[in-house]
Design brief:
CATH topology of the largest domain: Glucose Permease (Domain IIA)
Largest sheet: 9 strands, mixed
Bound molecules: zinc ion
Radius of gyration: 21 Å
CATH architecture of the largest domain: Distorted Sandwich
CATH class of the largest domain: Mainly Beta
Shape: elongated
Helix content: under 10%
Strand content: 35-45%
CATH superfamily of the largest domain: Glucose Permease (Domain IIA)
Number of domains: 2
């Protein structure tokens, strides 16, 4: 389920939207919050809060104005009050943080997107975050009668508590400025998401008598569609032993891609073709552990050509 969750690991609001009166009381409104991530240090990240987001716009680098990033979900998300696309505006990361950011860049759930900063004469390191329902509209923002630049989306700005669930397994709450966020437990939010606990064979059926077509490293996130005995189905045709899955989020999470064709596996980038659990059939789930040039590491000493992964 594509729940939209609060994007910081520690919620410590320094200002709610009531304190942003020029935003929340103008003729055109949005409802920004400032979060310093729990400390005065520059150490808090904005993490991808749904299955996938894409950078739609970057503004302000090298200018006096506060650096601003527009992120849009690539599919509808579930919030406490609606199910729709969502667009989020994030202000104040420093110029250096944008060096490796590009419009069109995509991020998966729980991936770090951007570090807090103080660009635009902010008082202390923090992120200024506002949310709109729907997709980015026009230039993504609009100046109101108080001179505040408010987010502009197809369905309009929403309050943070109408947009974000707080995933208790991901975010520690330090300060909410009395905003009534709704908590979501792991049982609800990730009922079907599991993580591989050690390198695990993927088979074409629920048992060891079925052919092993690939292996997934520890930390791979898989979605379980069906269970049969001690076996779990992770795609239309792929099964893994449930004994090596956990709901506990590991320190290092690997997301997956699928092969778009029958695909060779090599021992290193452009290295020797392997015969064990290879070639991978079309539509095989592979972990993305790392990339090097045109190659993707799918497990220890197993690499595949990135152009045939989606
Ligand atoms: Zn602010």
């Amino acid at each position: 389920m594509n729940y939209l969750i609060y994007p910081l690991k520690i919620m410590n609001l320094t200002q709610g939207y009531e304190a942003h009166g020029s935003h929340s009381k103008g003729n055109i409104k949005d409802y920004p919050i400032d979060d310093n991530g729990g400390s005065a240090k520059k150490d808090a990240y904005f993490y991808c809060p749904c299955d996938e987001m894409v950078i739609k716009k970057i503004y302000g680098v090298g200018q006096k104005a506060g650096n601003t990033l527009w992120l849009e979900s690539t599919s509808p998300v579930i919030t406490p009050t609606f199910e729709d696309y969502v667009t989020i505006m994030v202000v104040h990361p420093n110029d250096s943080e944008f060096k490796n950011k590009k419009v069109g860049q995509k991020f998966k759930r729980y991936e770090k997107i951007v570090l807090e900063g103080d660009d635009g004469n902010a008082t202390g390191y923090h992120l200024h975050i506002s949310v709109g329902r729907g997709r980015l509209k026009g230039s993504g923002w609009e100046e109101n009668n108080h001179g505040a630049w408010v987010i502009k989306t197809t369905e309009g700005a929403v309050k943070p508590e109408e947009a974000f669930f707080v995933d208790s397994n991901f975010t520690i709450i330090k300060g909410t400025k009395n905003i009534p966020f709704i908590k979501l437990d792991k049982e609800q939010i990730g009922a079907k998401s599991y993580y591989v606990t050690e390198s695990l064979n993927v088979r074409l059926g629920p048992g060891t008598s079925y052919q092993a077509i690939n292996s997934l490293p520890a930390g791979t996130m898989v979605n379980v569609a069906e269970e049969k005995g001690t076996w779990s189905r992770i795609s239309a045709t792929e099964w893994v032993s449930h004994n090596f899955l956990t709901t506990k989020i590991p320190n290092k999470v690997y997301y997956t891609k699928k092969t778009t064709t029958s695909l060779n596996v090599r021992n290193k980038p452009n290295g020797q073709k392997l015969s064990e659990k290879a070639p991978l059939p079309k539509n095989t789930t592979v972990a993305v552990m790392a990339t090097s040039g045109k190659w993707t590491k799918i497990n220890e000493n197993r690499w595949a050509f990135s152009a045939y992964l989606t």
